[in-house]
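TL;DR need structure tokens for one chain.
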Amino acid sequence: MTSLSRRAFVTAATAALLAGCGSTPHRAATEPSATAPSAGASAPARPSAGAVRALARSVPVRLRIPSIGVDTPVLRLGLASDGSVQVPPITAHDRAGWYRHSPTPGQVGPSVILGHVTVGAYGDGVFRHLDRLRRGDRIVARLENGTSAEFTVTTVRTVAKAHFPTESVYGDVDRPELRLITCGGARTGDGYLDNVIVFAALSAASS
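>> reply
TL;DR here they are.
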């Protein structure tokens, strides 16, 4: 990963503390810790000898997670004027958003998709049940070039925002991986205390 991309990923980690809460407008936060995973959490599975070949860069346009009933268009998210990562708008028809400074799904590296857990007065967000995913569940990203990148969940973690695992989420990896991020845990007056993070690895590709 280039130094520019790495800086953009650190910025993304800042916003990940807030992404997906569906409460007040999101502002820049102090960069979370990049230390080891929280106690009791398992580390993401590492590459296997039979890894699927990486795909060419192509922007994701749709995301499906059959086991929790997600079938959503995917927005492109950049950086807001304050340097934080944009999040999907709070609307009745909630959608997930891909952070465009991360790899596209199927490229080598961690592709990052954010979603709301709740959307204010509109109720549940698109990632409301993200914490129900389990190891082995399937995630399919449909790409702009007509290809589908299929991922298999390796780890699902709920972590305190104060101990967000920056390096585990945004750090370099040597295979195509996916990160889905939303909020979780106990709700406070202006959001949630935790983040739910899904780690997944590319397992198949089709046209």
